[in-house]
Amino acid sequence: MPLNTNVNGDNSCSTGLLEPGAPSCWTSGALNTVWYTVVPTTNTLTIKTFPGTLSNTQIALYQGACNSLTQVAPTSSSCNQDITCGLNTALNSQITVSGLTVGNTYYIRVDGEQDMTGTFGIIAIPGTASSLPPTFGQDCSAPLPVCQNTIFTGNPGLSNFGSTCDINGSVGCLGSGERASAYYSIPIGATGTLEFDIIPNDWPGAPSTTSTDYDFAIWEIGQSGLTCAQLANANPTRCNYSAYGVTGVSGTGNSPGLYPGFNTAYESAIPVTAGETYLLVVSNYTNSTSGFTLNFTSVPDPINYSGAPSSMLWQGGTNTSYGVAANWGSCVPPSCSSDAIVSPISINQPVVMSNQTVNNITISPGASLTINPNMTLSVCGDFVNDGSLIMLAGSTVKFVGSGTQTISGSFTGVNHFANFTMEKPNGTLIIQNDIDIYENDSLKSGFFDPNSKYIKIKKNFYNGGGDITHLTPCTSGTYEFCGSTAQTYTNLNEDIILNDIVINQSPASTLNLSAGAYNDLTIGGTLTLMSGKIFTLAKKVYSLNTNNNAVSPGNAASFIDGNLTRSLNGNATGVFDFPVGNAAKGYQLASIDFTSPSKYRRLMLTSLHGLLFRPARSLTSVHCQLLSESGSQ
Question: Cα–Cα distance between 455 and 449 in angstroms, integer?
């Protein structure tokens, strides 16, 4: 696994067969382990998991060869079941191991506690835990914005804690450190008082006082200069650790009339001055599966609300609609100037029900994003999928940003794209992982770099600008055409050279080369014919690779109906296959065997008018074979 990159995992189909015994820190139960290799660039490595459907992980680090692996010493630091922050125990896992050898290969072992299986995320970074990227909304360094006076967080709410244990012991009234924490940044725009209520979603209403136990602490961090590193040793401005769930601050210091019976869970209102910034941490002491509502109730209201923050977190407080502000912490839904982080904190996972735009978008482990039929999500920045992308038939992801954009994470199989469109004013779109496109691949403007990855397309390929919109020549990577009906290849403006091409349709159909000057299918790597025909019409398949096996022999369900040109080096010998055919004759494999070094640079065979070789000059020292439709000589 690469360093500094979250990787998706799933131990659902794994076992512990022929593996080392369970580490001493792990629970008993069936071993359902998966393994990753990692090569550290420093002598210290931090590894952390993130829960998905596998909510409770355990990990360990090994070295050696696969048949004689040993746990890295000291074993107490190379194994973890549950990570702790203060007295709080989270269900994900984290280790920091020092004394490693730079450049050596180490083995990360991941399992679920007891017999648990499911999906998870995992990251490995050089250095200590302080180098982990912050978790938006759950770290002091990356607090949630306050956009309106009412903020909804759906069930089950936040869990565990962020990348940093900001409160690792007793701070003010918080006696056990962070517990399913949420951080908010509250900018003050006018002098007055600050008041708020925190209401658990499972509170049934008055007169009951039974609900999830939420606590809070709040600090002034703007004019005071208080830093996140100092937070654990700084007394809060207000703090409450009552066993009651409904809590907050009020003008009287007692609970408002709407929440009778919660007096001991309230603190007095906070006098505030314009220009101050407060940091509020909301802590779920119960670690339950209930979110909460945060209400700011001051009259007049001194808060300078952020209507369009640069980043926002999906909180699913109302429903599943991506375009509803209440689901984004009451912030305006994401746009080309704001990032979106799709989190698993709510059972209401987002569904794009109307055309939407976003800058950078990240689907976190355990979270999902659904795009409804005929809806388009336009992406101006990067797209990272560490969770689940569910694109329904007819939906589109369109990359529209200027400059460089990247696609990384899981985009194959169930996480496939439906329609994939690049329509950038300028700049490059780079894929960092293999992708599947179940409908159309349309490259209209901008520059696409397949980055040596494997791309599957089930419908049509359209490249609108030739070498202006697609990297050429591609010296690695693969395009697989794998549709169930006729597919079309269209390239305009200038010729491009692709690397490997695989025809693997199910059931076998056709890949049709469009008319026009630049629609030859030019291949610099290999052509593998498995299922489906290439129908060239007046165009041709042009193999630039001079290796004998650059074009596979094909079969009765997969051949070239039309023109095939193959390049040869100046001294070619041996057999070169021409898997051609037409509707009348079907599959007709022609093989040319150069029994002495060839002088020819290029040969074309066409099946449009029977079989016809078109060499540069007369063939000599050549043995030709024509195989019948059945494949016999």
Answer: 12
